[in-house]
Q: What sequence folds into this?
């Protein structure tokens, strides 16, 4: 026990931090995707709208690995924290 902190407490703090980052990325993704349309029916004079939609999709694609990484990290840390807590309780 280092400075009164247990391993479970440290893992819990790490999980909370990663989960906070995950929530930030999910909210940011929702804000970016707010103006995304599923289908656009545009005539040639409205090419600006199509370009804006391509930019939104591009931003969402760039954000995707960060969202996936933070969700994965949060799940791994949650499972690890639980496993360490159970092992410590058994020993």
A:
């Amino acid at each position: 026990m280092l400075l009164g902190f247990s391993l479970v407490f440290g893992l819990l703090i790490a999980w909370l931090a990663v989960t906070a980052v995950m929530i930030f990325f999910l909210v940011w993704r929702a804000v970016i995707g707010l103006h995304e349309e599923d289908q656009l029916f545009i005539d040639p004079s409205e090419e600006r709208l199509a370009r804006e939609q391509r930019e939104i999709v591009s931003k969402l694609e760039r954000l995707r690995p960060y969202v996936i990484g933070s969700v994965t990290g949060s799940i791994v840390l949650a499972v690890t924290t639980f496993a360490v807590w159970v092992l410590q309780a058994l020993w």
Summary: The CA atoms of residues 13 and 19 lie 10 Å apart.
